[in-house]
Amino acid sequence: MRVVFAMLLSLVTSLGGAAGSAAAATLFVTNTKSGSISIIDTGTFEVVGTIPLGAGKPNRVAFHPDGKTAWVVYDKSHDLGVVDAEARKLLRRVRIGGNPYNLAFSPDGRYLYVLDWSSETSGDEVIVYDLKAERIEARIEVSTWPAHGVFSGDGRIFYVSGETAGDVSVIDTAAREIVGRVVHGGGDAMGLALTADGRTLYAAAGENKSIVKIDTATRRAAGTIALSGIVHEAVLTLDGRFLYATLRKANRLVVVRTEDDRIVATIPQRGYPDLVTMEPTGRYALVTNRHADLVSVIDLATHTEVRTIAVGKAPHGMALRPR
Fold this sequence. Notes:
mainly beta, 4-stranded antiparallel sheet
């Protein structure tokens, strides 16, 4: 299968010429039990490098919009690591908050938003960190266990899922305050996906075994998509035609057609599928399988797995390097 896939990929690349080559990117995958980042070339789907991250159980990873650095959350040591993407090495460790779980950069690259879980030194909050001044500029209290966050295209709104609260907080980034909250009640709530036009937010409602469609204008639930298991991640394809959701405890991916909210495919996975990233050409999705130590490659045209990529132990976080 690996040889056949490589031949097909080579043919597609040759037909696409320079444009196909230019579309390739590098994907950083954090390996929580190996203490490292595996670097995957999305043009060849091969691991092309490994970055040691040291002790502390590295988990989530996000790139600064300029693509020069990647920031990593350490679950055990409760700090962040800054990685030089070009030199492929850890530069330094930074402590922001008491128990950081996830992070996202504002679209303009000025601020780092850290989703911080309650600890002895902090509450459940979103910490706004000024990267230039290297200081915390604001703290925004949210519901329990802020998990995933996504910015509106213009950066004016930041949506945050509350894992145990089963809700989505709507944060005005200028006022630094919550201006809306959608409660769906599904514990283990995680993934968020915003349509390109910004009108619809898909929110994984975890233990409710569903995805909630939120109208961003009214900030209210506008519909529900029922699935067959506890939903973790929700990611739209680049063309917005399909929504990929991970049912990690059931070892499955579910594909929803956004035109009519119908399930069009279910894709078996090897071990605890966690996060999903769409590679830049729009032809493939990449999925971390934490308990199988691999990243699976999904053909979006056929909704089938075409390859697996061996990485480090317990891969979880993923981030594409911006050009």
